[in-house]
């Protein structure tokens, strides 16, 4: 009998799943899901090491590329897509490559994950040795992802791998492995469940902690949020009010003067300086809010 990956094994607790009532099914799923954050907690040291090297690369002009197939690839796409609106990054800073291309975001392109050479080709086309390649594969053995990582290593590109099994080919190949085992799925082999939940939690940590450390957050406020609709324009005003001792009218006026940039509006109010002065400080700091604030504080002394 061949050894099965943990993510492919039968879950004895759900062996009679098709005989359960609706409430029994969702209760079981909820109980199984509670194991996920505990499993992720065990991998926090690995996650920390990965974040630290990503920060270093991005601070020096590099980019972060997620790569995966199926559900893993879609989660990479989701995390990358959320960075520009949440943290005000350009769309090239964090991006995602998915086996099968954009079609695979909406429908399964199952054979795409088996093509190792296509994974290699994507790396050759898109990455440089200033970047980071972050492979995502629940099994830890997806050929498309392994091919990409192998190519990246040959090109001197830093590699990180996220798998939902331990001692995987991906983990053994990358520079910085993250391996978390959440156990067998409620529906055997359906890694869009607990494995995907673990991946989502970890990717949340990766992008959020990285952006915080890069100065995209002030206290716990999304000061780099992009005001692209009416809801977000109101949110920017609320953020300015939270960060400064000001009323709504003054916050709105400052936001207008700052062209909707919450960072600039906050700094203008905190230090009573004009928009060009604030933007100069932000430019000198590389867009790092905390460092720009420190510069203005020193200038005001």
What does this structure look like?
The protein is α/β, with parallel strands linked by helices and about 300 residues long. The chain has 2 domains: about 5-215, Rossmann fold, CATH 3.40.50.10490; about 230-300, Helicase, Ruva Protein, domain 3, CATH 1.10.8. Helix content is about 55%, strand content about 10%. The protein has helices spanning about 20-35, 35-40, 45-60, 70-85, 105, 115-125, 145-155, 170-175, 195-215, 230-245, 250-255, 260-270, 275-285, 290-300, and strands spanning about 65-70, 95-100, 130-135, 160-165, 175-180. The protein has a 5-stranded parallel β-sheet, with helices on both faces. The N and C termini lie far apart (about 75 Å).
Task: Using the coordinates shown, work out and report the CATH topology of the largest domain.
Answer: Rossmann fold
- Major pleated sheet: 5 strands, parallel
The CATH architecture category of the largest domain equals 3-Layer(aba) Sandwich
Number of strands: 5
Give the percentage of residues in beta strands.
Answer: 5-15%
List the helices and strands and how they pair.
Elements: H1 22-33, H2 35-42, H3 44-59, E1 64-68, H4 70-87, E2 94-98, H5 103-106, H6 116-126, E3 132-137, H7 143-154, E4 158-163, H8 169-173, E5 176-179, H9 194-213, H10 230-243, H11 248-257, H12 262-271, H13 275-284, H14 289-300
Parallel strand pairs: 1-2, 1-3, 3-4, 4-5
Helix pairs in contact: 2-9, 3-9, 4-9, 6-7, 10-11, 10-12, 11-12, 12-13, 13-14
């Amino acid at each position: 009998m061949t050894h099965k990956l943990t993510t492919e094994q039968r879950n004895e607790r759900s062996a009679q799943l098709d005989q359960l009532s609706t409430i029994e099914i969702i209760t079981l799923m909820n109980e199984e899901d509670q194991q996920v954050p505990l499993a992720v907690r065990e991998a926090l040291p690995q996650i920390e090491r990965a974040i630290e090297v990503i920060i270093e690369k991005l601070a020096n002009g590099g980019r972060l590329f997620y790569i995966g197939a199926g559900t893993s690839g879609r989660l990479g796409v989701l995390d990358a897509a959320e960075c520009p609106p949440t943290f005000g990054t350009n769309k090239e800073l964090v991006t995602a490559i998915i086996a099968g291309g954009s079609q695979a975001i909406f429908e399964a392109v199952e054979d795409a994950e088996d093509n190792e050479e296509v994974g290699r080709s994507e790396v050759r086309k898109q990455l440089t040795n200033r970047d980071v390649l972050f492979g995502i594969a629940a099994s830890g053995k997806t050929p498309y992802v392994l091919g990409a990582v192998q190519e990246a290593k040959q090109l001197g590109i830093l590699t990180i791998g996220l798998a939902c099994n331990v001692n995987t080919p991906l983990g053994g190949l990358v520079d910085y492995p993250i391996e978390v085992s959440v156990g067998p799925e409620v529906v055997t082999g359906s890694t869009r469940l607990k494995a995907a939940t673990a991946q989502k939690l970890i990717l949340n940590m990766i992008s959020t902690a990285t952006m915080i450390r890069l100065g995209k957050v002030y206290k716990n406020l999304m000061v780099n949020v992009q005001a692209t609709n009416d809801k977000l324009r109101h949110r920017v005003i609320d953020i300015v009010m939270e960060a400064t001792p000001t009323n709504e009218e003054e916050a709105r006026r400052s936001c207008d003067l700052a062209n909707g940039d919450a960072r600039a509006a906050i700094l203008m109010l905190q230090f009573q300086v004009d928009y060009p002065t604030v933007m100069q400080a932000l430019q000198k700091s590389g867009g790092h809010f905390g460092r720009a604030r420190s510069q203005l504080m020193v200038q005001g002394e």
